[in-house]
From TrEMBL:
SUPFAM superfamilies: Concanavalin A-like lectins/glucanases. This is Thrombospondin N-terminal-like domain protein. It comes from Crocosphaera watsonii WH 0005.
Length: 114
């Protein structure tokens, strides 16, 4: 039986972004599929203890990754999928993992995952 590494990058034809958050250094979360690199805000911490490779830890107060608005991330009203791996130690409240909404006037547009 052969043992295969899980470090193989699987891409899908319509995939628009992938932030592995396993860069383990710097102030940027690299998008390895597209051009939507994110800026680390309020000093989230790089770790070497991710499920596969490194990870990024957030303090649960004000750390986040900011990604500039890009048309590639606007999915309209069609079907789409978002996948994340998250480990939390907080068992109370609701925290947003991902948020791309416009709340100017009228109905809220966009999507959020929390």
């Amino acid at each position: 039986m052969a043992l295969h590494s899980l470090n193989t990058l699987l891409t899908f034809p319509e995939q628009v972004a992938w932030w592995g958050l396993d860069d383990n250094q710097g102030l940027v979360a690299l998008d390895i599929i597209g051009t939507n690199d994110g800026s680390l805000v309020n000093a989230p911490t790089w770790n070497n203890n991710g499920k596969i490779g490194g990870s990024l830890s957030f303090d649960g107060i004000d750390d986040y990754v900011e990604i500039s608005d890009d048309d590639a991330l606007d999915f309209g009203t069609g079907d789409f999928s978002i996948s994340v791996w998250v480990k939390t130690s907080d068992q109370s409240g609701t925290d947003l993992i991902l948020d791309k909404r416009v709340e100017s006037s009228g109905p809220v547009q966009g999507y959020a995952l929390g």
